[in-house]
């Protein structure tokens, strides 16, 4: 990793204990709070994968803090200027996310708590829309952050827990609740990413000279789809796959539990808004072109 001065992120909550839990609704049990007699101090931490080690937290703070800095710009208050070796730092973030546990995703949840996507990654996409290597690297990170829940997480989130049962040890009940809270936090974060894309300010700007956020990713498909047969390279196929994965991930984000009618309606409306955005940004037309191409091969 490149060397740089430690920089904190806005509203990161830096300085938390080494066993900080990435799930907004769950508190990790660490050696520190067990010794201090805090809540659930008698409950062993059966799943260390629910927390992020301090070394990784420090690494993430450094990486996320140096990839770009806000610069005064009267025309765009969210303008983020990348550092010279920004793509190297982004690749460090990508590698860290690849080490994340697929069932619990504590690193992804921590990145969500720090609001790295709306405050760092998406401003980079808009500010560097013509830097294809950088955009592709951000795209790979977004695909990881938005991927659907694992089957294990879905089961944990839907588990009915009988907290009044005296047949189940307290430690087991506490562990089940932690796993459920973790799964629900993952689902809520995926919906939040969906909401961020749908309601991004760049899609609402009138008379904009350049397209909105989604158009940057759609434009990545122009060159690969202009080629056919053997002229399409492995890089072209990878680009198409990454963009389609991002679209798939955003579409699949939905509440893990069926809550009130208001929440169900809100989720359905958000989904329809995303489809409407896809239509305006020609995503549906592109999907039709790809489908026709696949059909012609058969």
TrEMBL record:
Keywords: Cell cycle, Nucleus. InterPro entries: Timeless, Timeless_N. Pfam families: TIMELESS (PF04821). GO terms for molecular function: DNA binding. The keyword Nucleus applies. Residues 1-10, 38-48 have a biased composition (Polar residues). It is found in: Nucleus. GO terms for biological process: DNA repair; DNA replication checkpoint signaling; replication fork arrest. One of its GO terms (cellular component) is replication fork protection complex. Residues 1-48 are annotated as: Disordered. Its main location: nucleus. Residues 84-296 form the Timeless N-terminal domain. PANTHER family: PROTEIN TIMELESS HOMOLOG (PTHR22940:SF4), TIMEOUT/TIMELESS-2 (PTHR22940). This is Timeless N-terminal domain-containing protein. It comes from Attheya septentrionalis.
């Amino acid at each position: 990793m490149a060397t740089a001065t430690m920089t904190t992120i806005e509203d990161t909550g830096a300085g938390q204990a080494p066993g900080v839990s990435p799930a907004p609704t769950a508190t990790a049990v660490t050696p520190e709070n067990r010794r201090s007699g805090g809540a659930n101090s008698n409950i062993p931490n059966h799943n260390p994968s629910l927390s992020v080690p301090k070394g990784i937290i420090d690494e993430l703070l450094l990486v996320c803090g140096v990839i770009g800095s806000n610069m005064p710009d009267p025309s765009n208050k969210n303008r983020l200027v990348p550092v010279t070796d920004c793509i190297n730092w982004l690749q460090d973030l990508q590698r860290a996310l690849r080490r994340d546990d697929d069932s619990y995703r504590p690193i992804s949840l921590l990145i969500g708590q720090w609001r790295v996507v709306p405050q760092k990654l998406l401003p980079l996409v808009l500010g560097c829309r013509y830097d294809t290597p950088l955009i592709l690297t951000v795209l790979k990170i977004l695909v990881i952050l938005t991927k659907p829940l694992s089957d294990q997480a879905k089961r944990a989130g839907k588990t009915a827990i009988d907290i009044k049962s005296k047949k189940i040890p307290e430690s087991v009940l506490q562990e089940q609740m932690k796993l459920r809270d973790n799964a629900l936090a993952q689902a809520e974060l995926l919906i939040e990413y969906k909401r961020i894309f749908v309601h991004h300010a760049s899609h609402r700007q009138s008379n904009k000279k350049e397209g909105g956020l989604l158009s940057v990713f759609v434009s990545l498909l122009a060159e690969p789809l202009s080629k056919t047969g053997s002229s399409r390279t492995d890089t072209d196929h990878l680009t198409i796959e990454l963009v389609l994965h991002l679209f798939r991930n955003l579409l699949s984000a939905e509440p893990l539990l069926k809550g009130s009618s208001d929440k169900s309606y809100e989720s359905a409306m958000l989904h329809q808004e995303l489809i409407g955005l896809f239509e305006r940004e020609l995503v549906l037309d592109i999907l039709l072109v790809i489908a026709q191409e696949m059909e012609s091969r058969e």
